[in-house]
Design brief:
Two copies of one chain form a homodimer. Chain A is α/β, with parallel strands linked by helices. In chain A, about 50% of the residues lie in helices and about 15% in strands. Chain A has an eleven-stranded mixed β-sheet with strand order 3-2-1-4-11-10-5-6-9-7-8, sandwiched between helices.
């Protein structure tokens, strides 16, 4: 198993839930190192009755801070120190539930980008019956068509690595199925993805897809810019919350005899869709395994994120991405 | 009640389901005129055993046709003739389940835009416990910050007109809550919406909102560009389908005793969230009441859309928008 560095100071419930999550993961056999303020971490470890190695970091980058500026101004912040453990070969992956911008900046500036990647992207997994990988889901609000091609390659490697999909079906998120729909980004992106399909035997570009294709099973990977990807992801979260709320209202209206069954189903759906328990999302395209967790992560989500980071390291996610990009760069562009 | 012109030729299930929906609405007392190919419509009316006035139109604009070009080339298409009935005062509203682009083009070029509106927008209603109006949900893929201000005004009038909300809470769809998040559109839009809030006593700009705010009850109107709005809306639809599929799977895993209750709840949620039964969405900002229906609309959805169009005419939606825009244009801009 790999060694996972955990930013103990990032997230809405840091450091308590982060440390508790790290202890859960360690209990499952994962090798975890906490990174952050020792004076804050040690008493919590004592309180929780656990032991874990701690690497001290004296500073923290907050949610409201400017990511790249903070990185320069606070070189001893927990996220930078966690990234440096990976860079220096002292850890195989790092995770953070803090500012996405800061985690992304730390990954890009401390680990570096892989050759062929201009825009590392966040790859989120949508829990459809066959999981769908959506990227970019928030790292890059504005992108160019060629970045959509990078996202397609990154997502394809992840679909192969985690789900054994071959060939991987890639769709372009759009507002209609016909070519020519959408903004200039989608119109030019459609052409470039069609060219990628022609030169890459491991993926199939299925064309434009819409949000409703989440449920149709026709795609493994969806590519879009980080603005639309993030909107889609959070709208899915909001819709799930809205349905859960509505379900509670409807349960009150059911016959009393039907209520226990309805509650049992609601609980089953909650377990399946609770994004606070899905752990996190890989940041793909940098020279190291990086998992970004939801800011609201509780201990269970953090332990899942650590498991995910470990799995990424274990399966050689970064080497696979590197190899694929190299092959793609050498392939003739049509 | 108002007189509603119905494009009988637009939609995946036209003309049969459109005509059947029109008959349903007429049965409820709505005054409906069908517009389209008489030779196609009359036998269906006979088959369904109903009578409705028909205005003949010899052409149809399809889903794949270029909207504005088709409008010029096919002046006798059903959507153009339906729009002209409104322009000429022979109907008070029109509805179409055909190409959104063509309906939008017909509305803009045949009815005209209201003074102060550069970009008419589609206002969709999200069935939260307190309904939320989302615009633009697909008419304008690319917009400028000042168009977000127009959308805020249009959505506010609709929230007042339909739901009696006062003051209307308007949010800007974004990828984080803090000002400064998002693309240039959102950063500049945030400033302009803040200025609108200062000069317009009837609305409150609550700042950036995320997809998950669909369930928090903190907003009445969400503004965004037509690309992101459409993605959000269809992702919500896709998520609902995905949850319904998942619910069916989970029901198989429940104790047999719990299954009837679970099925009853699933049915209740289906009724509540089935977008095929929500009817349609108002196109706001043109000089007439226009309702755009989902392409997959069945007869029930069409009858709902007719009811919606009639309600818009009845409540003076267009005059209210016109008055509000005039007041806004006269107000000092801060």
């Amino acid at each position: 198993m790999g060694r996972v560095a955990v930013d103990a100071m990032g997230g809405d419930h840091a450091p308590l839930e982060i440390i508790a999550g790290a202890l859960l993961a360690a209990g499952d056999g994962h090798e975890v190192t906490l990174v952050g303020d020792e004076a804050a971490i040690t008493p919590i470890l004592d309180q929780l009755g656990g032991e874990l190695p701690v690497v001290h970091a004296s500073e923290v980058i907050g949610m409201g801070d400017h990511p790249t500026r903070s990185l320069r101004e606070r070189p001893d912040s927990s996220i930078v120190v966690a990234a440096d453990l990976v860079r220096d070969g002292k850890a195989d992956a790092f995770i953070s539930a803090g500012s996405t911008g800061a985690a992304m900046a730390a990954a890009v500036f401390r680990l570096g980008r892989l050759k062929g990647v201009q825009r590392p992207a966040i790859a989120s997994v949508i829990p459809a019956p066959k999981p769908i990988i959506l990227l970019d889901s928030g790292a890059n609000p504005d992108v160019k068509p060629e970045h959509l091609v990078e996202f397609a390659v990154l997502g394809t490697v992840m679909a192969e690595t985690y789900y054994g999909v071959d060939p991987v079906r890639v769709g372009l998120l759009n507002i209609g199925e016909e070519p020519g729909k959408g903004r200039e980004l989608e119109r030019v992106g459609w052409d470039q993805l069609t060219a990628l399909d022609a030169r890459d035997p491991l993926l199939t570009f299925v064309g434009n897809v819409e949000g409703r294709d989440l449920a149709t099973g026709k795609i493994d990977v969806i590519v879009t810019d980080g603005y639309a990807g993030n909107i889609a992801l959070k709208t899915a979260e909001g819709t799930i919350s809205l349905m859960a709320l509505s379900a509670l209202e409807e349960i009150q209206r059911l016959d009393e005899a039907h209520r226990p069954g309805a509650m049992a189903m609601l609980e089953a759906l909650r377990r399946r869709f609770d994004y606070e328990h899905t752990g996190g999302a890989h940041l793909l395209g940098t020279n190291g395994v990086v998992v970004i967790s939801h800011g609201s992560s509780n201990r269970s989500a953090i332990s899942q994120a650590i498991r995910m980071a470990d799995e990424g390291a274990d399966r050689g996610l970064v080497d696979r991405v590197r190899d694929r990009l190299a092959a793609d760069l050498e392939a003739p562009r049509t």
